Here is the input.
Amino acid sequence: MPELPEVETVARGLQRQIAGRRILSVTLGKTDFIDNPETVEKELPGRRIYSVVRYGKFLLLRLTQKENGGETERQSALLVHLGMTGMLSPQPVGEPQVKHTHMVALLDDGRELRYIDPRRFGRMAYLAGERLQEELRRFGADPLEAGLEEFTSRIRGRRARIKALLLDQQVLRGVGNIYADESLWKARIHPKRLGVRLREEQVKRLHSALQGILARAIELRGSSIADFLDAEGQPGEYQRHHRAYGREGKPCFRCKTRIKRVIVAGRSSYFCPQCQKAPRGGRELRVRARERGEGHLKKS
DNA sequence: CTCGATCCCTGGACGC
DNA sequence: TGCGTCCAGGGATCGA
Here is the structure.
């Protein structure tokens, strides 16, 4: 489950390994996860990958213009979302192709950049110019760059549950299930608490917990819980530091209470019922009041 | 605006 | 051993 730290790890590896290489040709396998397969096949060959960066959970392979002179400046990039099981790495041409290899780009140094993704939950798209800018604008702030003030306004202005907000890529780009649960555990906030109801102190704790955890996870090259491997084929180490995620029934590292698992925002959410107190009242009280005929909420 | 449900997809875990 | 079933999960979409 590549999230921000895993994608950052892959981006750094690819930057080291393939930045500067020219793409000579592209071969696609299954294309149902690619926005515009014909465009990918047509536009990539001839371009140089001048840098690889992370944008939320996307890898951005920034591409040079084709060398046919004098055209307008158009930023272009291949966007790659690894979904659950995506892997992008350069390999020697002779290396046998594993099952579920869906894109092979021949590079000018004799290697091939290969995209492997058994479940095809990922996404790939070639975008340029305004279309690219438009796409990037859809996403929220980078959690590592957002200051406390911006973080606060993005969280406290919303009535959704904090877990849903953390997972919402239009609020913050790059946070997924693991790091949402880990930061809520560290900040001692229940995943069902509403954003608007977080106290200033809690938002501050969450902001700091999230940034600290993401930074540390990047240092440890991400979490390899299923089969995540970086661009060099190496697993990460951060899974050894998980305090909540995947620890149902195991003792909380702070208070020994057993970690619980509930579904919030459609996702498994692991938390300590002792350290992360459930919100009292709120939504539930309002529903009960309405059932008793005390509701006088205006419609829309 | 926010919610839950549903779909996409495959492999791994589990039960028999 | 082999088969069926369930589940994981990010994101899009739809109806409530």
About this structure: The beta strands of chain A are 23-28, 49-55, 58-63, 76-81, 87-92, 101-107, 111-116, 123-128, 260-264, 267-271. Residues 32-33, 83-85, 100, 117-121, 158-161, 164, 226, 265-266 of chain A lie near DNA strand B (CB under 10 Å from a C1'). The two ends of chain A are 38 Å apart (CA to CA). The first strand of chain A starts at residue 23 and ends at 28.
